[in-house]
């Protein structure tokens, strides 16, 4: 399931549908909150969209292992 979500996120990001990319990655984090690759990808997408504070919040959650 994780690989499928990552492929969907990559495709939606490539097509410019960043909202769907964020939604897919946030959904993935609800299933696997300690997945550093997904956190990093989501953080990068959010930063590129200008949502740096949200990106930092996500990284902090991973470091503290908070639930989503």
In the predicted model, the low-confidence regions spanning at least 5 consecutive residues are: none
Q: Spell the H/E element sequence.
A: HHHH
State the helix count.
4
Instruction: Report the average pLDDT across residues.
Output: 90
Assembly annotation: single chain
Describe, in plain words, how this protein is organized in 3D.
It is a single chain. The chain has 4 helices and no strands. With 68 residues, the protein is an all-alpha fold. It has one domain (2-64): Tetratricopeptide repeat domain (Serine Threonine Protein Phosphatase 5, Tetratricopeptide repeat). It is flat.
Question: What are the defining features of this structure?
Answer:
68 residues, mainly alpha, Serine Threonine Protein Phosphatase 5, Tetratricopeptide repeat
Give the topology, please.
Layout: H1 2-14, H2 18-31, H3 36-48, H4 52-64
Short synopsis of the structure:
The chain has 68 residues and is mostly helical.
């Amino acid at each position: 399931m994780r690989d499928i979500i990552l492929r969907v996120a990559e495709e939606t990001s490539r097509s410019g549908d960043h909202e769907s990319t964020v939604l897919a990655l946030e959904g993935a984090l609800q299933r696997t909150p300690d997945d550093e690759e997904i956190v990093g990808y989501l953080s990068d997408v959010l930063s590129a969209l200008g949502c740096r504070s949200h990106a930092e919040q996500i990284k902090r959650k991973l470091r503290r292992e908070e639930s989503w």
